[in-house]
Amino acid sequence: MQPKGISKRDVFRKYPDVVDIHQLCEMLGGKKTMCTKTAYRLLQSGHIRSFRIGRAYRIPKIYVIQYLFGTAENEEEVKAVEEDNDSVESQL
After folding, report:
1. Cβ proximity of 3 and 49 under 8 Å
2. Structure confidence at residue 35 (pLDDT)
3. Residue 5: what pLDDT?
4. Number of neighbouring beta carbons within 10 Å of residue 23
5. Residue by residue, what is the 3-state secondary structure of the chain?
6. Do residues 47 and 38 touch, judged by C-beta distance below 8 A?
7. pLDDT > 60? residue 1
8. Long-range contact list for 80-85, CB < 8 A, 24+ apart?
9. Cβ distance 2 to 10 under 8 Å?
10. Is 50 helix (H, G, I), strand (E, B) or coil?
11. pLDDT tier at 11 (50, 70, 90 boundaries)?
12. Which one has a higher pLDDT value, 47 or 80?
């Protein structure tokens, strides 16, 4: 549930459109409450969609918002994104 007067667009305005793992941790509660290991687990399990460039995860901000507000699409779409990520990785 989001507070009145705050739209989904305004929640993470100070962050870029695509964040890294450390910025994801800050977005999910700060460095003290969210460790990178937990963030990696969320990404690897598909709870938060992402893509990889080399060995580094990149997470579009919209996927973090979808995760927090519970508006992520069904599991089939998550699997489709993972398959797309695998095909992009194989091309690199």
Report:
1. no
2. 85
3. 62
4. 18
5. CCCCCCCCCCCCCCCCCEECHHHHHHHCCCCCCCCHHHHHHHHHHCCCCCEEECCEEEEEHHHHHHHHHCCCCCHHHHHHHHHHHHHHHHHC
6. no
7. no
8. 81/46, 81/49, 81/51, 82/46, 84/51, 85/50, 85/51, 85/52
9. no
10. coil
11. confident
12. 47
Task: Tell me what pLDDT residue 29 has.
Answer: 85
The torsion angles phi and psi of 80, rounded to 5 degrees, stand at -65, -40
Q: In the chain, pLDDT over 90 holds for what percent of residues? A: 40
Q: pLDDT tens, 18-58? A: 999 999 999 888 766 778 888 999 999 999 999 999 999 99
Cβ-contact 63, 49 below 8 angstroms: yes
CA 74 to chain centre: 15
Q: Tell me which residue has tokens 């995860």.
A: 57
Distance of CA 51 to the CA centre of its chain: 9
Longest dimension (CA), the chain: 45
